[in-house]
Specification:
The chain has 308 residues and is α/β, with parallel strands linked by helices. It has eleven helices and nine strands. It is 43% helix and 20% strand. Strands 1, 2, 3, 4, 5, 6, 7, 8 and 9 form a nine-stranded mixed beta sheet that branches. 47% of the residues are buried. Bound molecules: pantoate.
Length: 308
Amino acid sequence: MALQAQAATNISLGHTLSSTSHYSVGAEAFKETLERLSDGAFTVTEHASGSLGGEREMIEGLQIGTVDVVITSSGPLGNFVPETYVLDLPFLFESYDQARCVLDSDIGDELLAKMSDHGLVGMAWSENGFRHLTNSQREIASPADTEGLRVRTMENAVHQEAFRQMGARPTPMAFPELFTALQQGTVDGQENPITVIVATNFWEVQDYLSLTGHVYSPAIVLGSPILLDGLNDEERDWFMQAAAASVDATREEVSRLEREGVALLEANGMTVKTDIDPAPFQQAVEPAYEIFTSQYGSDMLDRIREKA
Ligand code: PAF
């Protein structure tokens, strides 16, 4: 029977950000590309704003087949695929060009391939952006200013360690709980890229932003093996092309928000500290590297540093 004569297969695509975010731009590109290439044999329904749960829950959903495709940060990924923790090391990358070059190389491909050992399909590395610190208490210019600050981190061991080394009190939490936690003062601050700070209207609950750029946050388009392993080669290729289109659209939107986002945050009342000296932050988080390499070795880290 011709594919068009069959009922369309609906694909659920989840992410945690709003429908105005860069993830949503990526989700739209995925949907448009897959529906066009498959001539409507596959349709895509986007589930934005964490309506399918936080990122850790959605990754679990991929493993058991309750969700088909997820766009997620690397935040909770290391809990499933520890090899990816290397990408979470603070100050590993200095620029978008450097990070994209590494993720688009054999190194990125190798890390994507590791997903299949853990019940996931790594389709493509996408982007969230360089992470910066916001808080409701004071201007942060150096690690000393973070002393005692309750900072929500992602559920990521490397990030938690880095904030502990800076003197802050890291509080791991799923993103869908964060806005209320900031509003109620359960935590004082959080760290995310400009893209997320804009998409989540964090100016409503956070007065200060410091452009620390302390870590590059990759995102990833992940698929469920329960769906993808059942596809023929042509269908699988449509999905991979859709993931690639999603990455291109997301990166373009991240670049736009990097150019325009800070002015928008200032216009909404945030005090933005732009002239941060990264050296004391780099020094403070150095032990995170020692802890990482003693656990996972330095091979991948050395390769990334050579390539970057
Ligand atoms: O902070 C996080 O958990 C992530 O950066 C987010 C906002 C869910 C995007 O992947």
